[in-house]
Design goal:
This protein has nine helices and twelve strands. It is of the alpha/beta class. Helix 6 crosses helix 9.
Amino acid sequence: MTKLFCFGLGYVATQWIKTYPALKYQGTKQNEAIIFNQFQQFDPVILDGFTHFLISIPPVYGQDLVLDRYADYFKKRGSSIKWIGYLSATNVYGDHQGQWVDEKTLPAPLSKRGHHRLMAEKKWLSLFETYQCPVHIFRLSSIYGPHRSSFERMGAVSTTLVDKSGHFFSRIHVDDICQVLQKTVDHPHPGQIFNLSDDLPCDSATVMEYAYALLNKKPPPRILFEKAQISEEMRSYYHENKRVKNHKIKQELGIKLLYSTYKEGLKNCFTHIKHI
């Protein structure tokens, strides 16, 4: 029996639990104490009843909250734990001017978020290297899925289709994240890093236009990146341009993507929308 503790019951963790109901789980959720609020600490003896751990809480002010509080606990248990999964992000790679990156590409993060993710990755991997904790690192591309897709973006007062020539985003459907997590639970690959992305990186405007087409609606016109009225945070995502390879999850884990491109993925999301 898989006894899973989730540090962060967010979108991915919740979908994983729904998809694989045999998982016996507990966990934490911000502002909703299932066992504890993510900024509080509890007696680690609670964790003794769990064999598997998912960490999806991002660094806060550069610090990994789980490691800050429970690193000694994981060191103590070491290889008696069966599986640890850390959800990282592909922003650790930085900018590659539209070229392909894989797990052998040297990380060169540009943003603070990317730097903090990379620091956390290294700390988690050091638990594997020194204490034999079965750590797996999953570098996630942009996550989408039911109730979190281009369709929900249309609900905003104004949807901007940013046009930036030659710019690529990689993305991954949440159900494909879940099948990768489950695969490594069933067949652990401790100490490994895996990229999670689909087969067709492309610009965000093309994806939005396809979503409008599924609704038989006319999309708003594209606006050049230089003239687009978008937030600084959103603008920062366009500073990095890369395509993320997924060969490793296919070759080493035997993964066959459920949604190999945004087209199949958005068709799935379309079946879940209520009203736009």
